[in-house]
Amino acid sequence: MRFFPLALAIVALFGCGSVAQRVCPLVVPWTAEEQKALSRALDADKDPLIHRAVQEDAGYRAWARGCQGAH
Predict the structure, then answer these.
(1) Which of 10, 8, 12, 28 minimizes the C-alpha distance to 20?
(2) Beta carbons of 38 and 30 less than 8 angstroms apart
(3) Which of 14, 23, 6 lies closest to 70, judged by CA?
(4) Long-range contacts for 58-66 (Cβ within 8 Å, ≥24 apart)?
(5) What digits encode the pLDDT tens for the residues 25-53?
(6) Cα–Cα distance measured from residue 65 to residue 67, given in angstroms and rounded to the nearest whole number
(7) Cα 39 vs. chain centroid, distance in angstroms?
C-alpha cells in the first residue's frame, strides 16, 4: 500500500503521449453507519498498528480527494 502513490506518480510522469495527464485514485465513500462502526471498533481495539493504518488510509483518502478537486 505504501508504494501505490509512488507507482501512481511514475505512471503519471512517464505515461504515453506528450500531454501530461493526472491520474487520481477513486475514493469510495463510507456510509454514516460504516463510519460509526469503524469508530466503535477503533475505540474497542487499542492496537497502535491498527490506529496507524487507519490514519494512513485517511491521509491517502484526503490526498485522493484533493487530486480529484485539482482537475
Answers:
(1) 12
(2) yes
(3) 23
(4) 60/1, 60/4, 60/5, 60/25, 61/27, 63/5, 64/24, 64/25, 64/26, 64/27, 65/27
(5) 999 999 999 999 999 999 999 899 999 99
(6) 5
(7) 18
